[in-house]
């Protein structure tokens, strides 16, 4: 059997076998999330990130174009962006450190948010993705842990 198909089928089987603690994320297929962690991630995101990334991580129209200062604009964090191509470690590192000042305006959140809040925000971001994108991330991207 093709390796990619096998991994995809294994991922689907694992997701299907989740226990009663499995939460339906945003009405999408079953994923194993800690409900309290997911709720905190959403609260922290709403309090700190929506002004740039949008209420549901959708970003603002034209986000692909540099702003008036030539810097990158905040990207969407949902399926329409590229965030799903980062491992969870890379996402957390980006939240910790922010972006280089010459590239964009993403601030560093280290020292402003706790480690747990950053972990929960990264988890909440994954809940925005469709099942297809989440499965691709889980089986291809997340397996590349740095």
Account of the 3D structure:
The structure is a single chain. This protein has six helices and two strands. It is mainly α and 146 residues long. It has one domain: Cytochrome c-like domain (Cytochrome Bc1 Complex, Chain D, domain 2, Orthogonal Bundle), CATH 1.10.760. A two-stranded antiparallel ribbon has the order 1-2.
Q: Would you spell out the secondary-structure blueprint of this structure?
A:
Layout: H1 3-16, E1 23-24, E2 30-31, H2 35-48, H3 50-53, H4 88-97, H5 115-127, H6 131-141
Antiparallel strand pairs: 1-2
Largest sheet: 2 strands, antiparallel
Helical residue percent? 40-55%
**Element-by-element helix/strand order:** HEEHHHHH
Q: Segments where pLDDT lies below 50 for 5+ residues?
A: 3-27
Structural class: mainly alpha
Radius of gyration of CA atoms, rounded to a whole number: 16 Å
| Range of strand content | under 5%
Distance N to C terminus? 28 Å
| Mean of all residue-level pLDDT scores | 83
Brief digest:
The protein has six helices and two strands. By secondary structure, the protein is mostly helical. The model is unreliable at 3-27 (pLDDT under 50).
Provide keyphrases for this structure:
146 residues; two-stranded antiparallel sheet; 6 helices; 2 strands
């Amino acid at each position: 059997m093709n390796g990619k198909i096998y991994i995809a089928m294994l991922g689907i089987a694992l997701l299907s076998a989740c226990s009663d603690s499995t939460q339906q994320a945003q009405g999408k297929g079953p994923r194993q999330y800690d409900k309290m962690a997911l709720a905190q991630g959403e609260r922290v995101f709403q309090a700190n990130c929506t002004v740039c990334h949008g209420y549901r991580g959708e970003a603002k129209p034209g986000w692909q174009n540099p702003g008036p200062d030539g810097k990158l604009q905040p990207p969407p964090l949902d399926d329409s962006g590229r965030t799903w191509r980062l491992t969870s470690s890379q996402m957390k590192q980006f939240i910790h450190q922010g972006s280089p000042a010459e590239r964009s305006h993403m601030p560093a959140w280290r020292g402003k948010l706790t480690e747990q809040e950053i972990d929960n925000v990264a988890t909440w971001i994954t809940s925005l993705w469709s099942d297809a994108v989440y499965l691709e991330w889980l089986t291809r991207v997340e397996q590349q842990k740095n």
